[in-house]
């Protein structure tokens, strides 16, 4: 099965990814519409002379009249009103999801007959299109595809647009189409009605004249009734839910997360708290499948067992997207025990992100490295395996990815956890001091040396762990000394002669490519191999989308307490802005962005407007200095512009005149006035 899709500003034919339908036959539908014999001359007489033939059916005559009055061009070759799904709104998206499987089922019954099947919403915009290659290629030439407007006002008389207008099934064949480019087609459509009796959508089966159209009418009507029944059930559940204004108000005002689902598993509504807990906007939730968010199998099992409404405690269901969320499902049943929908209540297993929470358990130091992405978990698993040994570890990752946090976790998980953890930023120490900082010095080693000398970082870390951050920035001459210390296991203070045994585990980190630094001669190869015993790579935040919300909620919790700010609610759009940003500064940038937002939020609701401009993809706002009154002097501005252009083009009159947009002679005059020539 093939599908016509709109991509890169044109329709493209692709093999459909929709699952194939079974072989179920529709109920027999005894309905047919005859059409009078009409040739091309009847169409020409009406279009050119406004004269109507007796053979013209009333429904076609009235449609042609509407097309003529609205100014439809009978000679237009294609549809030019094509919209993106985002422009067509939520109703379009919901209806498309609701009807896809029906379209594929109908196609399975007309396969290899040179036909295509599509559904249009109430305005005439097509939802999706499946069919045989021949039919889809012909449709492509007309721009007859998803997002195209097939109403009468757009492309003239056709089965879709005319069925929407007249409200009954019909077939439009050959020259009955108002636009000549459609004369090679036969189109059959059946409207789908809402509760108010007005057409909500249309099911259409179309194909070239030589295709097999013998069953298209009954299949179009079958599809329309099938979709119609689904819509009725969904609307009934929604009306039941929203029928009570008090109930609806309570639903939206609850602090607990609430999601209401129709009997088919479609989300009818979700309150703001549920959207915030799931990190998804309410718009994206509505119309989606509840099974994508929760394991609803316990509910189905309970209903099969005869549960009618469930216990007051509800039926526990597992959240598939956030392990920290717990959820209970409460089936809503009618007095005759028919399922009308399900209410899903969300809560957090631990305190909400904007409430005071206890720090992570100290039993597993690696819980401080927040995230559950696969790349991060691989790094943590490797870190756990090497933590117990004294093996040297090299941590590699971009700035801000949490290398020091992971180094501390390795230390706290090791047998040295009772010893000190000493961190040194090798790039922040002046080259003339780095040796005395690392190895210490004896009294009198240099002018200003402390009486009694001073131990270095290696001695301070004795019995524990020394973390050498930004190791790639260490000067080359110092790398030799460091290598000797690592090989011999002892140090000698600056100015001293006595060797001091060293009992230290080394962890190093860098955001640079050390192998590349070795090739450039900026890092010693022997030191590289000495440090690169076990290599752990920390992924950048842009490759850990699922971790962004976990980190964000943690930072909101800790920073709000630090700044003594009460956060009543976090807007889903706030989380949306975080997910859309690329985070070149990684976790560090995320933390500071959230801190800025909490500090700047005007009330107790944390929204995207408080985030820095760079996170909201806005240009940085720079203060505009108040202009000096002299800047408004036109002659001075012109003179300065001429001087700068003349200097830029190094006195070339032709280039300068062209850049200024004036003639050479005019430029000569102005240069003389300015006494430049």
TrEMBL record:
GO process annotations (BP): regulation of DNA-templated transcription
PROSITE patterns named in the record: PAS, SIGMA54_INTERACT_1, SIGMA54_INTERACT_2, SIGMA54_INTERACT_3, SIGMA54_INTERACT_4
InterPro entries per record: AAA+_ATPase, AAA_lid_NorR, GAF-like_dom_sf, Homeodomain-like_sf, HTH_Fis, P-loop_NTPase, PAS, PAS-like_dom_sf
Gene3D superfamilies, per the entry: 1.10.8.60, 3.30.450.40, Homeodomain-like (1.10.10.60), P-loop containing nucleotide triphosphate hydrolases (3.40.50.300), PAS domain (3.30.450.20)
Record-annotated Sigma-54 factor interaction domain positions: 369-599
Keyword Transcription regulation part of the UniProt annotation: yes
Record keywords, A-Z: ATP-binding, DNA-binding, Nucleotide-binding, Transcription, Transcription regulation
SUPFAM superfamilies tied to this protein: Homeodomain-like, P-loop containing nucleoside triphosphate hydrolases, PYP-like sensor domain (PAS domain)
SMART domains the record matches: AAA, PAS
Transmembrane portions of the chain: none
NCBIfam families documented for this protein: sensory_box
Protein name: PAS domain S-box-containing protein
């Amino acid at each position: 099965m093939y599908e016509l899709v709109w991509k890169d500003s044109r329709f493209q034919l692709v093999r459909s990814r929709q699952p194939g339908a079974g072989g179920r036959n529709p109920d027999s539908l005894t309905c047919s519409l005859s059409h009078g014999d009409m040739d091309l001359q009847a169409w020409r007489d009406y279009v050119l002379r406004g004269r109507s033939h007796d053979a013209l059916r009333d429904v076609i005559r009235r449609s042609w009249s509407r097309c003529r009055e609205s100014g439809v061009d009978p000679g237009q070759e294609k549809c030019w009103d094509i919209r993106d799904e985002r422009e067509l709104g939520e109703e379009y998206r919901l209806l498309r999801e609701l009807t896809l499987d029906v379209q594929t089922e109908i196609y399975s019954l007309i396969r290899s007959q040179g036909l295509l099947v599509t559904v249009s919403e109430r305005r005439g915009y097509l939802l999706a299109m499946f069919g045989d290659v021949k039919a889809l290629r012909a449709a492509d030439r007309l721009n007859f595809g998803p997002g195209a407007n097939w109403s009468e006002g757009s492309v003239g008389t056709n089965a879709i647009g005319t069925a929407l207008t007249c409200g009954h099934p019909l077939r439009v064949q050959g020259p009955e189409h108002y636009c000549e480019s459609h004369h090679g087609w036969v189109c059959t459509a059946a409207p789908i009605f809402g509760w108010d009796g007005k057409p909500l959508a249309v099911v259409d089966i179309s194909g070239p004249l030589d295709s097999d159209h013998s069953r298209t009418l009954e299949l179009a009507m079958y599809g329309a009734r099938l979709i119609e029944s689904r819509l009725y059930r969904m609307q009934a559940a929604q009306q039941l839910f929203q029928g009570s204004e008090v109930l609806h108000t309570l639903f939206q005002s609850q602090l607990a997360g609430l999601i209401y689902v129709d009997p088919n598993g479609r989300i009818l509504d979700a309150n703001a708290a549920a959207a915030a807990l799931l990190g998804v906007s309410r718009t994206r939730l509505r119309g989606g499948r509840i099974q994508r968010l929760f394991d609803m199998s316990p509910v189905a099992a309970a209903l099969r067992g005869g549960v009618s409404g469930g216990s007051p405690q509800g039926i526990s269901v597992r959240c598939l997207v956030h392990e920290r969320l717990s959820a209970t499902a409460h089936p809503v049943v009618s007095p005759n025990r028919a399922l009308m929908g399900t209410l899903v209540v969300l809560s957090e297993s631990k305190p909400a992100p904007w409430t005071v929470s206890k720090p992570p358990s100290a039993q597993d130091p690696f819980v401080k490295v927040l995230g559950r992405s696969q790349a991060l978990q691989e790094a943590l698993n490797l870190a756990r395996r090497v933590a117990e040994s004294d093996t040297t570890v090299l941590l590699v990752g971009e700035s801000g990815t949490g290398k020091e946090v992971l180094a501390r976790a390795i230390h706290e998980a090791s047998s040295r956890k009772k010893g000190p953890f000493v961190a040194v930023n090798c790039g922040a120490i002046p080259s003339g001091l780095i040796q005395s900082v690392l190895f210490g010095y004896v009294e009198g080693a240099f002018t200003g040396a402390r009486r009694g000398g001073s131990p270095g970082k290696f001695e301070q870390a004795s019995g524990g762990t020394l973390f050498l951050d930004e190791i790639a920035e260490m000067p080359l001459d110092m790398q030799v000394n460091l290598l000797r210390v690592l090989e011999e296991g002892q140090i000698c203070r600056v100015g001293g002669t006595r060797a001091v045994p060293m009992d230290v585990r080394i962890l190093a980190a860098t955001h640079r490519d050390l192998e590349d630094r070795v090739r450039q001669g900026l890092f010693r190869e022997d030191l590289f191999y000495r440090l690169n015993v076990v290599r752990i790579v920390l992924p950048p935040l842009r490759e850990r989308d699922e971790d962004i919300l976990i980190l964000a909620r943690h930072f909101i919790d800790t920073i709000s307490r630090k700044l003594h700010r009460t956060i009543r609610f976090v807007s889903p759009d706030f989380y949306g802005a975080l997910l859309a940003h690329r985070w070149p500064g990684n976790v560090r940038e995320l933390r500071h962005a959230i801190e800025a937002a909490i500090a700047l939020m005007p009330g107790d609701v944390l929204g995207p407007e408080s985030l820095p401009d760079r996170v909201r993809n806005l240009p940085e706002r720079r203060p505009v200095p108040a202009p000096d009154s002299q800047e408004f002097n036109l002659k001075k501005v012109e003179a300065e512009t001429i001087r700068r252009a003349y200097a830029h083009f190094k006195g070339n009159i032709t280039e300068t005149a062209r850049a200024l947009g004036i003639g050479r002679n005019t430029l000569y005059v102005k240069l003389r006035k300015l006494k430049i020539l």
